[in-house]
Amino acid sequence: MSSMTDIVFLLLIFFLVTSTLVNPNALKLLLPKSTNQLPSQQSVTVSIDKNLVYYFNAKVTPFSMLESKIVSELKNSADPCINIQAEKSVPIEYVVRIMNIAKTHGYKSILATEPE
């Protein structure tokens, strides 16, 4: 019986040592937990397709009019947010233009992605 406990303790030590070596470069973050989601906040959606055409809430809009439409839509919002949807092939400078509009007016900007 004592030899069996020795083997169990050796296996336990082996698994403890190997489990700590599995992912040594991972960040250890303490993330908040939530049991429910918050209600949807006031936001607008700006999309950019592969032809570099801007869409404001699914309607084609030239970039020169985009800022005024965003501001007029979000002027009475308590927590305004811009959802940015851009195709993979869109150069980053076109996305940054929208983010600059958000920063200028103090809006949050979210870059939408597809789930893997």
From TrEMBL:
Transmembrane segments: none annotated. GO terms for molecular function: transmembrane transporter activity. It is a single-pass membrane protein; Single-pass type II membrane protein. Keywords: Cell membrane, Membrane, Protein transport, Transmembrane, Transmembrane helix, Transport. GO terms for cellular component: plasma membrane. The keyword DNA-binding does not apply. Gene3D superfamilies: 3.30.420.270. Its main location: membrane. GO terms for biological process: protein transport. It is found in: Cell membrane. InterPro entries: ExbD. Belongs to the ExbD/TolR family. This is Biopolymer transporter ExbD. It comes from Odoribacter laneus YIT 12061.
